[in-house]
Specification:
It is a single chain. By secondary structure, the chain is α+β, with helices and mostly antiparallel strands. It has two helices and five strands; from the N terminus they run βααββββ. Strands 1-4-5 form a three-stranded antiparallel β-sheet. Strands 2-3 form a two-stranded antiparallel ribbon. The radius of gyration is 18 Å and the shape is elongated. 7% of the residues are buried. The model has no long low-confidence stretch (mean pLDDT 91).
Length: 98
């Protein structure tokens, strides 16, 4: 069982990839909503949904940039698994982040 007091102690690469994917998924959802609104003649809603989709794509781009800055280990030529609250880089050779 996860101790809720420890949830902010590690920034994890795996969870960050899931967060990134969810941002892109939301952008896709809002693109679909914009298309549906456009087809039904509601250009105001279509514009709003398109703007929200673009916001999610911007969030995803920022998350991707942060991921590369935080988790890339240039010396080893691979991504690390996380960073703890003290800034210690955690590298156990995880293959699922590489």
């Amino acid at each position: 069982m996860t101790d809720p007091d420890r949830l902010e102690e590690v920034i994890a690469a795996y969870e960050t990839t899931l967060f990134y994917a969810s941002q892109l998924a939301y952008a896709d959802i809002y693109d679909m909503l914009a298309d549906n609104a456009e087809k039904s003649g509601n250009s105001t809603e279509a514009s709003r949904c398109s703007a929200v989709a673009e916001q999610y794509r911007t969030y995803a781009a920022n998350t991707r940039e942060m991921f590369n800055n935080v988790f890339w280990d240039a010396e080893k030529g691979r991504y690390i698994g996380g960073v703890n609250k003290d800034g210690v880089r955690l590298d156990f050779g995880f293959t699922f982040v590489n």
